[in-house]
Amino acid sequence: MDIEQKQAEHIDYFVKQASAHNGASLANVAVEATSHPSLFAFSEILAVPNVLELQGTENSVYLDLLRLFAHGTWSDYKSNAGRLPQLVPDQILKLKQLTVLTLAETNKVLPYDILMQELDVANVRELEDFLINECMYVGIVRGKLDQLRRCFEVQFAAGRDLRPGQLGNMIQTLTNWLTTSDNLLISIQEKIKWADSMGEVDKKHKKEVEERVEEVKKSLSTKADMDFRGQEEIFSEPGGVMDYEEDRSRPKRRRHPMG
Predict the structure, then answer these.
(1) Which stretches of the chain are DSSP H helices?
(2) CA triplet 169, 36, 2: central angle to 5 degrees?
(3) Could you say which of 27, 191, 193, 225 is the most buried, measured as most Cβ atoms within 10 Å of its Cβ?
(4) In terms of pTM, does the model score above 0.90?
(5) What is the dihedral of CA 163, 169, 173, 179, to 10 degrees?
(6) Which H/E stretch holds residue 200?
(7) Which of 133 and 7 is assigned the larger pLDDT?
(8) ∠ CA(107), CA(141), CA(93), 5° rounding?
(9) Each residue's pLDDT tens digit, 122-133
(10) What local confidence, expressed as pLDDT, does residue 244 receive?
(11) Facing residues of 151 across strands?
């Protein structure tokens, strides 16, 4: 089962849970969702009316908690830890995983120094173990660890929830991509048409050459035939060379004695 299908099932479960609870009881749903090892998307849970109703209440910190896991990073939590619930180890791990996804959104080469700073990791060995065991093995990212260059080359990263106002940018990006794709397709089609037309020109030219060759062959053949017939006519004309056998068959003339 791939990660997208797992996400859909987990999201559906927690949306139903959030819809079935109110007020303080939603705190447990928020903690369970943000601690789940296979859940990395929270927008659908945030859209549940019961969850939105936490705004302005004594339990609004759990709404903020869900928002942090939907859009924030480990650095965001450290900056606002005083007004957020204290995180349990599973939540800390999850938020650090999400931090890697956020960094991979805009950079496909992540320097080790930046990763260690953003994740509060003490050394390269610990960082690489985290990337391998908690990110690549889980399936949320794929990439290459480059120890020589001290960086992580991202080949794939799962997408996070869209931040407020980010949808418009994404639509514009997709529109630009579609426009570029359409232009590329048109260019390819034009090149195919040009290649086809050139192929037809080549065929036509080849046919014309072949026809010209045939004409030359016929012309040469006709000329050779005419020359041959001309030679026959020369040798068959009267007064021409007499046949030797014909000469022998004629009676000899007698000479009359003179005088």
Answers:
(1) 3-19, 26-35, 43-46, 49-52, 60-71, 74-80, 89-106, 112-119, 124-130, 166-236, 244-249
(2) 65
(3) 27
(4) no
(5) 140
(6) helix 166-236
(7) 133
(8) 100
(9) 999 999 999 999
(10) 47
(11) 111, 146
